[in-house]
Amino acid sequence: MEGKAQNKLLEYQETAPETKKQFAHLRKNGKWIERDDVLIKYLDRHGKLTIGYARPNRRGAGIWQHDGDHFKEPVLLIKTAWGGHSLYQKFRSPSTGLPADEKLQAELEKTQERTKKNNEKRKQSNPLPTMDDIKAGYGVSWREMLKEVSETLENYETLFPALKGAAPEIAGLVWFQG
């Protein structure tokens, strides 16, 4: 989940009499708290978790604040989120396999026809997609997500000096679909 809710909604909830108590733990001295015990890596940013960390002035589900309260050890969140990517195709797990040959063939024909029309319209000569091109699109975001996790775990001590000497353990995968 990329996090699209505006922070002003949370600011309202944090000050409204009927919800103020529920959101009080997120602020201290009029500022959003930064969790020393919950660290986050998202795209090219890494640091302490706070409201709006992943996207300035926006927030996602916010459930991560509770992880620091739940676990004794520090929590490292490795966030990967790319909006508009299909679960059926781009986030398809390799264990799912590819769609049936007839579906792939239909997709290839449709994509080649679209490329031909675009070439004519724009007076271009882009090559027609191949079956290998079609197959390569399946699982591309899944592979990118695993790459992001692997790179973060390989470099966690540099990214998060407070974790130096710790032994990271993957304890879960959370999937949001909005």
Separation of termini?
A: 7 Å
Order of helices and strands: EHHEEEEEHEHHHH
In terms of quaternary structure, the protein is single chain
Mean pLDDT: 88
Largest sheet entry: 3 strands, mixed
Classification by helices and strands: alpha+beta
Global morphology: elongated
Q: How many domain units?
A: 2
Describe this structure in words.
The protein is an alpha+beta fold and 178 residues long. The protein has two domains: 105 residues, no CATH class; 39 residues, no CATH class. The chain is built from seven helices and seven strands. A three-stranded mixed beta sheet has the order 5-4-7. The protein has a two-stranded antiparallel ribbon with strand order 1-6. The longest helix has 22 residues. It starts with a strand and ends in a 19-residue tail after the last helix. The model has no long low-confidence stretch (mean pLDDT 88).
Key phrases:
two-stranded antiparallel ribbon, 7 strands, alpha+beta, 178 residues, 7 helices, three-stranded mixed β-sheet
Brief account:
The protein has 178 residues and is of the alpha+beta class. The chain contains seven helices and seven strands.
Annotate the secondary structure layout.
Blueprint lengths: L4 E2 H9 L4 H4 L3 E2 L2 E2 L2 E8 L2 E5 L8 E2 L5 H6 L4 E5 L21 H22 L8 H6 L3 H15 L1 H4 L19
Parallel strand pairs: 4-7
Antiparallel strand pairs: 1-6, 2-3, 4-5
